[in-house]
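Model: Ready when you are.
Researcher: Fold this.
Model:
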Amino acid sequence: MNSDPQFDTSLPGTPLTEMEPVSHPFRTALIDILQTLVLAALLYFGIDAVFARVKVLNISMQPTFFEGDVLLVNKLAYKLGAMETGDVVIFHNPNDLSEDYIKRLIGKPGDRVEVAAGVVYVNGIPLDEPYIAEKPMYEGSWQVPDDAIFVLGDNRNQSSDSHSWGFVPLEDVVGKALIVYWPPKAITIITHPQIDDSGR
């Protein structure tokens, strides 16, 4: 008798068909669900490491942004690139780090900022600012430290910002605003005029 396990003794020389694996639809579905959840979590945390979402809660940036607008923020913008005068930046409120503010970047580290007769000067150069609500009714001059920035709201006379409470430490900057994506009627890419502030 042929004892080779690969042959049926009743039909000598005839190969046995291999056993089909037992199907476990519940286990297969569970594995698919777990894989999908893991992928979704990786995508969520990966995106969250690069982007933030910020909702406008007050009038300090009108007419550029209004209450209820939701902005997408690039958290790596200043880790991979340089700051530019005119950027819209998000940062932790220096007086309450649990709260985030949205303002216009006016003075970069080392800049000299002056406000006089309704005009903002950076390093002696007047800024062209078509985005502001009205000319500032205050005056002053500030030397920006090397580890901080100077910010102002576009609604100059209705904004709590660097002209009243000082500079923003670089370590408290969250990122650069890229786009308004909510509500749909307000969707827009955030841009600003090219500002030559190199006249030191």
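Researcher: Now this one.
Model:
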Amino acid sequence: MTTRPVTEDEKTAWPKTVIVPKEDSFADARGEIQPLVDLPMESAVLISSKKGTVRANHYHKTDWHFCYVFKGRIEYHHRPHGEDAEPEVVIIEQGQQFFTPPQVDHAMVFLEDTVFLTLGRNSRRQEVYEADIERIELVSPDS
């Protein structure tokens, strides 16, 4: 299995900000439905991370992902790949969703024990995932 190229049409559907505003939810006597993502995707993974740990420290060649935080807080570092500028830092709170497009260096520092859902464009099968990422050190694991 290989990755497919990103198209210009696909890019127009991506959020324009890191934090993704939520669509209006639908509630009735049974409960509530909160829309998260309405784009073609191939993976959904649930990730738990311990306070003080670092994840990502990479960029994706073609993959994108939406992450929805169920519990915890994340210090999210990002910048366009190939730039030397200091990364922008955004604090992601419980109940927020954020987006990472392809070709963006990114890292996550977990400010609390955190559980989040990642919805991605590409398969999360290990061989596909590894072929699509390039590891970098945007944030030192000892930070």
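Researcher: Key takeaway?
Model: Residues 10-135 form a domain with the Jelly Rolls fold (CATH 2.60.120.10).
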